[in-house]
Design a protein that fits this description.
The protein is of the alpha+beta class. It has helices at 3-14, 17-22, 24-36, 57-80, 86-101, 130-135, 144-151, 169-174, 209-259, 266-298, 310-326, 345-361, 398-401, 413-416, 424-434, 460-466; strands at residues 103-111, 118-123, 137-138, 155-157, 181-188, 191-201, 305-309, 331-336, 340-344, 368-377, 383-391, 439-444, 448-456. The longest helix is centred in the middle third of the chain and has 51 residues, at 209-259.
């Protein structure tokens, strides 16, 4: 391929996106001049530069296809710039990668800032579930993707069997067979933040330098978009946190001023001290949960996946809230099938604990809580474990239900005198979704509320074999 086309790819990567696209027609003219002997430096439209009658129809068609590809890149650029939601952004990138390179699948791996390892963040491969992406760690040393990160340049391997850098752990985990792949670095602020990989050319298609240029261009645009989405998410969360901290801090300040009054009765002084202790404890919980949520939303919080029995964890969590329930004469009933989960035990316990705490908080005195766990069919896997936590409280209005998973939303804590942080359900949702599960609820006024969520489980046959 002529040097002019290579020069074009450099422009695309190192200049502003729109400025690079402007140079497309001039570059194509130069390429046609080199390849076909056509007067490429003319200012006329490309359609006037030559004709199939000159015998150059194959070369002309090739470069018209190149023009169409970069026009598609321009369209994809607009799509990437139209969202700041990281999940949506990642999915658009891998869809574009498979389309532009005509490959079977594509994936995005980002560098973990804490460990320096590569983690899957998105993949178009059907077997690459959210749980699988969490479980797979791609080493920097001993992988093609790691080589791309270290060298900051693309790597095209047409037969991975002959390349010692190929990391086979991914194929073994998801039962997939990689034949060939192209990996390119995602660079933001002169730092490699990850790798975009296109895997397995479709039958009848071959890798070309155009593929390398195109995927490199996409990765450059994607890196900027991902960094923008991360910054937007962090700033949005910080603004919410500052707003939520303002009220309790003002309350603490007012209480401290009251304590300084010499005429304050002793019993009132004692009440104010208790209020200060309560608010300080709430602020501690809020800041801790805020940091947890920030890590979950940024992808820095990793799951520690293991196999464990569900029922012992459920009963262990119930014991944590047993006294709290007994104080209001609330009975807790457990009904569960034998289930082996494949999940992060500590984080699953946190989800159950949050739902149980809410079920007690918003229940009636002498009420009941029913916990049910069972295996259910799923589109993501043969079976998922579904857990329900049902209370017999007064239920939620339609208005409350619309905001249930919003950060810092507290249903009607003021009326009930409770002191939640408003982050518990948002964190629970993030944890469940990080496992590839779903969480939801049903509620009816005067009847109560049932929360339910699903998690990946070990198929019954595999569980029995492991025992």
């Amino acid at each position: 391929m002529g040097n002019s086309v290579k020069h074009f790819s450099i422009k695309i990567c190192n200049r502003a996106w729109q400025q690079a696209i402007i140079a497309t027609s001039q570059t194509l003219r130069k390429a046609l001049h080199v390849q076909c002997g056509i007067g490429a430096m003319s200012n006329q439209p490309l359609s006037y530069l030559g004709s199939p009658a000159l015998g150059n129809d194959v070369a002309i068609q090739k470069y018209l296809q190149l023009m169409a590809r970069y026009e598609r890149l321009m369209e994809i650029s607009r799509q990437l710039n139209s969202t700041l939601d990281l999940g949506t952004l990642l999915n658009r990138i891998i869809q574009a990668a498979t389309e532009l390179t005509d490959t079977e699948t594509a994936s995005i791996m980002l560098v973990d800032p804490k460990t320096g390892e590569l983690r899957f963040e998105a993949s178009s491969q059907a077997n690459m579930t959210a749980g699988a992406m969490e479980a797979i760690v791609v080493p920097i040393d001993g992988s093609l993707a790691g080589w791309v990160v270290r060298h900051g340049e693309p790597s095209l391997v047409e037969d991975v069997r002959n390349d010692p850098r190929f990391f086979r752990g991914v194929d073994e985990t998801i039962d997939f067979e990689t034949h060939n792949l192209l990996g390119v670095p995602m660079i933001a602020h002169n730092r490699v933040i990850g790798v975009v990989q296109a895997v397995n050319k479709r039958p009848g298609s071959q890798w070309t330098e155009d593929d390398i240029n195109t995927l490199t261009t996409l990765a450059a645009q994607a890196a900027v978009a991902i960094e923008n989405a991360r910054l937007f998410g962090q700033s949005d969360l910080i603004k919410e946190m500052v707003h939520e901290l303002r009220a309790p801090l003002l309350g603490l300040r007012a209480s401290a001023k009251l304590l300084m009054r010499p005429d304050l009765p002793e019993h009132r002084r004692h009440e104010i001290i208790q209020t200060i202790e309560s608010e300080a404890e709430r602020l501690t919980r809020m800041t801790t949960e805020f940091l947890d949520l920030a890590r979950l939303e940024s992808g820095r919080e990793r799951l520690e996946i293991s196999r464990f029995e569900y029922e012992p964890l459920i009963r262990e969590t119930v014991e944590v809230v047993r006294q709290q329930a007994a104080e209001r004469h609330i009975s807790i009933h457990i009904q569960t099938e034998p289930i082996t989960l494949q999940a992060d035990r500590g984080k699953v316990k946190r989800v159950i604990l949050n739902l149980l705490t809410n079920a007690i908080k918003y229940n009636r005195d002498h009420g009941d809580i029913f916990i049910r766990a069972a295996a259910v069919p799923s589109a993501q896997a043969p079976y998922m474990a579904r857990l329900e936590v049902q209370d017999t409280g007064r239920g939620m209005s339609e208005e409350i239900q619309q905001h249930m998973f919003e950060k810092f939303y507290r249903a009607d804590d003021v009326a009930r005198g409770t002191q939640g942080t408003g982050l518990g359900l948002a964190i629970a949702k993030r944890i469940v979704e990080a496992h590839g599960g779903t969480i939801g609820f049903q509620s009816a006024l005067g009847v109560g509320t049932t929360f339910h969520f699903t998690l990946p489980m070990v198929p019954p046959a595999a569980s029995n074999t492991s025992e």
